């Protein structure tokens, strides 16, 4: 007899909705969010405009996705099977390894393999890669953007990419195609930092597959977005002297963190490797 989660998700996988419908919805929401984020952030100072624009974009996108979830019957009926109590019960150690792996990638290996070589060869890409020399004063408008990034965005993104796309592709093409394809689309959503975001999508997908619930992924997604806020952990890595950005001495913390990636990946894989079909 099918499990409760499988029964609840059958409204999605056996209905008229196909993966390309979700991808099309993603691009429509993404396009509207791009325009809206540029319009609403045009009066913010140029130094920190890209970071705030990303947060606003994510908030607008998420609001559109949540609206479509209410409107489309297959989406609405699937919610019960996606937001269930995780089984097995998540352990702090397992989620800690997943979160630590995300940090080792985002603040270590990604910066060593991607950001450092680009900036060493082309220092003019300093701002395009989201680096800054100084942080502006913390204001209320930034806190509003933070709420969107920590509360609204993780729910909407996990719902679309893991809840909808991952499950639709699993039903049609198998687990590994679904994990890779949904993560590639997740990366594309993040525009010029797609190379950074796609591996995180794989981590979120494997966490979802282990617990058959969106809640654990939402939790670590929200925690990562919170720490990435420029006045928290993110500021320690995004604030660098521009004149020495291409020098190895400016990237020592990133190289140290990068060394943790492989052992953390092995520990994560041991716990989250999908069971054979």
How would you describe this structure in keywords?
single chain; 277 residues; mainly alpha; 12 helices; 0% strand
Report the span from N to C terminus: 16 Å
Mean pLDDT reading: 86
Q: In percent, how helical is the residue content?
A: over 70%
Give me the strand/helix succession.
HHHHHHHHHHHH
Structural class: mainly alpha
CA radius of gyration: 19 Å
Task: Let me know the largest β-sheet.
Answer: none
β-sheet strand percentage:
under 5%
Q: Which parts are unreliable, with pLDDT below 50 for 5 consecutive residues or more?
A: none
Q: What is the count of helical runs?
A: 12
* Counted beta strands: 0
Shape call: globular
